[in-house]
Amino acid sequence: MNKRSTTGLYAIATLCLFYLSMVGGGAYEQMTVTKVLVSAPPDSFAMLQGEYKFSPVAFWAKLRPLTILLFVVALSANWQRQPTRNFLVVAFGLDLLVTTATFLYFAPEVGLMLEDLNDPSLADRAHTWYRLNFLRLIMFYAVGALLLIAFKKRSETLHPS
User: Fold this and answer.
1) Cβ(150)–Cβ(14) under 8 Å?
2) How does pLDDT run across 106-146, given as a tens digit for each residue?
3) Rounded to whole angstroms, how far apart are CA atoms 161 and 142?
4) Whose CA is closest to 150, among 27, 20, 1?
């Protein structure tokens, strides 16, 4: 087995490591922070305000661009491997859809809710956001599963049974 043949496998393994770490952060955020955030709006929104507010920006601003870059690297390193490439393309497509939804709805909606804490529909909006965020997290898990399948497919080409 030469170095070139293992590059694609290492690229997917690295992507899986960072992507699943990111998904773990999202799961933690959903089960702890987001759950508290929507528990009693507008009072519970205090956790997003002030000097000691919760701010996940440092986490997401580092991992999101890194995982997108790793997707590109994994795709380029595995482009000639059709079964692997197909799983990576579908995973990347789903990931880009979820990321687009994040930028178009999820991130702006939190900001909009914070701007109008007296909105009578705030609790309903927060709960809708929470439920949709749970679906977004499920999509991230689906992408993670596709990445693990791509890793398995790629490793099978190096180590056939």
Assistant:
1) no
2) 999 999 999 999 999 999 999 999 999 999 999 999 999 99
3) 27
4) 20
pLDDT exceeds 60 at position 2:
no
Asked if 44 and 122 count as a contact pair (C-beta separation under 8 A), the reply is: no
Q: State the Cα–Cα distance between residues 146 and 131, nearest whole angstrom.
A: 23
Q: What is the pLDDT of residues 22-38, one digit of tens each?
A: 999 999 999 999 999 99
Half-sphere exposure of 20 (CA within 13 A, CB side): 12
H helix or E strand, kind and range, residue 72: helix 57-77
Whether 74 and 140 have beta carbons less than 8 Å apart is answered as: no
Say if residues 102 and 43 touch (Cβ distance below 8 Å): no
